[in-house]
């Protein structure tokens, strides 16, 4: 394995760990990490508690939005890095998982985060009349208050990621580079192996199996706080039950709102905070959903919690904003449950655990991590292998923003 301080170099008389990097959790983050580490020549084991590509976590389903429009420069940098890595992975796999589209941001001009997101990417402002003319008049927003109190801006950098297909792609690419993938293997504990035994970590699975690795990366999504509680780490990550909702496109408008016709992904910063993607994966349906949902225990889900309220809020938005193109009255045609793992400041957690450099955690992706998966995976793999991330440094990403310590004595972390 390349890299200064690379683990798994056996010392005389000591047993070498079986793997250089053990990745726990095979959602998008773990799968990308496994691929990035295996691409470095590391011997990688990827462990997943449930069946591969299961629908119980955060990375399953038909689509995720990718957009550059971010208020915080750190995410703009990360999404730009991720775009290069998505393209590289697609080239390696020989098929596509990302359908590029424009992206439309809209909301009250008074929203500081919307203004910053627009300014950061130099998006083109579209006035309300122009908006009504574009895309066959699909957005018929009636703006509350004076017209100039509202802002809409268009950028070229949206897109739809085919979620489950993308996770499967990174798993296949990792296996092709020699990674071992084991599903239906629940990790119940991660211990440091004693130095006399060669050091590294021992990853214990339910049923008594144990795996030895030089380094371990924990990417267990909504289960992070539970699993890492045993390290005395108090991760302030709150899982929320959230929904992907698909609505029927009104007859005759199917082509207008399709990706092939150039319809954009969109985010509305008003109340409710709605986002949507062009009709693509389910012809005749369009995905329009809303951030947020009730807190949930990933091991004891109430699959219907809060659904009626979220559905009502999105339906009301559709009736106001896209009344001629989307049928809200009939309710959503398809609903898929999902979990968002929220941190108090909506910033990710990417850090070392327990005072050493052998256990790395990636968690708390706060409902906006999928698009960044390949960048996160590369950074986590480098942290595990090298003890730091050159890729992050080259991209101008200050990993200090993602440290767990930001919450010490400051429950809101980066949000202050
Ligand atoms: C409704 C919804 C819409 C979203 N929309 C977008 C979007 O448009 N754009 C975007 O960028 N992001 C979006 N996101 C966020 C994005 O999907 C997540 O940030 C991302 O999928 C998180 O991936 P993960 O790998 O951290 O978690 P997961 O996908 O949950 O993966 C964690 C894995 O760890 C496994 N695991 C847990 N415990 C153990 C254990 N003890 N042993 C072994 N394995 C274990 C789990 O089974 C799971 O497979 C959305 C999320 C939701 C819910």
From TrEMBL:
Which GO terms fall under molecular function for this chain's record? flavin adenine dinucleotide binding; oxidoreductase activity
Q: Which cofactor does it need?
A: FAD
Pfam families per UniProt: DAO
Provide the coiled-coil residue spans: none
Chain ranges of the FAD dependent oxidoreductase domain: 20-383
Asked whether the keyword Flavoprotein is assigned, the reply is: yes
Q: Which keywords fit this entry according to its UniProt record?
A: FAD, Flavoprotein, Oxidoreductase
Organism superkingdom = Eukaryota
List, alphabetically, the Gene3D superfamilies matched.
Answer: D-Amino Acid Oxidase, subunit A, domain 2, FAD/NAD(P)-binding domain
Give the family, as the similarity comment puts it. Belongs to the MSOX/MTOX family.
Q: What is this protein called?
A: Putative sarcosine oxidase
């Amino acid at each position: 394995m390349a890299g200064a301080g690379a683990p798994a170099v056996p010392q005389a008389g000591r047993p070498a760990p079986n793997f250089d990097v053990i990745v726990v959790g095979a959602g998008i983050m773990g799968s990308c990490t496994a691929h990035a580490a295996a691409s470095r020549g590391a011997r990688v084991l990827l462990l997943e508690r449930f069946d591969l590509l299961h629908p119980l976590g955060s990375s399953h389903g038909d689509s995720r939005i990718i957009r550059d429009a971010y208020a915080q420069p750190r995410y703009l940098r990360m999404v730009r890095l991720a775009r290069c890595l998505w393209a590289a992975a697609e080239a390696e796999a020989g098929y596509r998982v990302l359908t590029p589209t424009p992206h439309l941001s809209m909301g009250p001009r008074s929203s500081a985060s919307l203004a910053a997101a627009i300014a950061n990417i130099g998006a083109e402002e579209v006035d309300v009349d122009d908006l009504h003319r574009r895309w066959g008049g699909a957005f018929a927003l009636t703006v509350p208050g004076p017209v100039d109190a509202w802002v809409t801006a268009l950028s070229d950098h949206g897109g739809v990621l085919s979620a489950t297909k993308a996770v499967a792609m990174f798993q296949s690419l990792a296996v092709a580079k020699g990674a071992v993938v084991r599903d239906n293997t629940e990790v119940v504990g991660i211990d440091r192996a004693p130095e006399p035994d060669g050091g590294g970590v021992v990853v214990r699975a339910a049923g008594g199996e144990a795996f030895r690795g030089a380094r371990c990366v924990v990417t267990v999504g909504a289960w992070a706080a539970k699993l890492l509680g045993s390290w005395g780490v108090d991760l302030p990550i709150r899982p929320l039950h959230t929904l992907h909702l698909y609505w029927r496109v009104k007859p005759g408008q199917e082509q207008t709102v399709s990706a092939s016709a150039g319809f954009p992904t969109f985010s509305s910063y008003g109340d409710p905070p709605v986002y949507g993607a062009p009709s693509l994966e389910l012809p005749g349906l369009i995905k329009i959903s809303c951030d947020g949902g009730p807190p949930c225990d990933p091991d004891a889900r109430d699959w219907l919690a809060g659904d009626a309220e979220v559905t009502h809020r999105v339906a009301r938005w559709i009736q106001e904003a896209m009344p001629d193109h989307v049928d809200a009255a009939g309710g959503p045609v398809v609903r898929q449950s999902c979990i968002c793992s929220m941190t108090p400041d909506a910033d990710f957690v990417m850090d070392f655990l327990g005072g050493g450099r052998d256990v790395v955690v990636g968690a708390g992706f706060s409902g906006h991590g999928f698009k960044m998966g390949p960048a996160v995976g590369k950074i986590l793999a480098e942290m595990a292998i090298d003890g730091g991330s050159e890729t992050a440094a080259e991209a101008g990403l200050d990993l200090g923003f993602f440290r767990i310590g930001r919450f010490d004595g400051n429950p809101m972390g980066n949000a202050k």
